[in-house]
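Q: Predict the bound structure with adenosine-5'-triphosphate.
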Amino acid sequence: MMLEIEELHTGYGRTQVVSGVSLTVPDGAVVSVLGHNGAGKTTLLRAVVGLLKPSAGRIRLDGEDISALRPHRRVDRGMAYVPQGQQSFGQLSVLENLQLVADGRRDGSGRVAEALDMFPALRPLLARRAGLLSGGQRQQLAIARALITDPRLLILDEPTEGIQPNVVAEIEATIIALSKRSGMSILLVEQHIGFALQAADNYYVLAAGRVSSAGAGGAASAGDVRKAMLI
Ligand SMILES: Nc1ncnc2c1ncn2[C@@H]1O[C@H](COP(=O)(O)OP(=O)(O)OP(=O)(O)O)[C@@H](O)[C@H]1O
Ligand SMILES: [Mg+2]
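A: Predicted complex:
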């Protein structure tokens, strides 16, 4: 099993936001997490990557308990996290943003080339400052940066949020293509129910910090998911 989250509790100070969530990502699978604004999706991911401490529960990667590991150690073990909101270094060029991650890695330049193969729309933009990119282009850059670390578990937080519809389709197609690459599992937070179910082997619905519904992506109906989001 790539990722096992067991009875995870976490939050901010005394405010508990995630209350006993259990979730698994099998090897090579795509798992979607759905839920309304404020359901706790980002908070869950932040705990998974080590940016928030769990108050209870376990997180295992490849069977190993990583609950106490620092974020960079989790990256070393194969996790990559693309946060919500298309972050990059705005003053640096697209190429510099990619090289920053590639530097010091074995076959860094090869990895940059591979990441660009997944996002060919970035090639003509390599010299442009990242701060001048559109939201969709910045999102593509953020995912490309994550790919350079050669992750076994790619964690994406609302990769199509606030992006023009034509670019959304491009990003969705790339996520599907990535999911077919052998050896990579994907944990995807997504509010678009249609895509979340289409892309996913399994899905989980979060409502008020708990799993209100879960199942196989292909078998789920959008209506049932929508209902579970309201619980
Ligand atoms: N840094 C923080 N400090 C205190 N409370 C926070 C913090 N970040 C988020 N929260 C609260 O935690 C709850 C869950 O937030 P979270 O960002 O995990 O939701 P989400 O499901 O990712 O929502 P969205 O779909 O809008 O991204 C919300 O009530 C939010 O106000
Ligand atoms: Mg969020």
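A: Strands lie at 3-12, 15-25, 30-34, 56-61, 64-65, 79-82, 153-157, 185-189, 202-207, 210-216.
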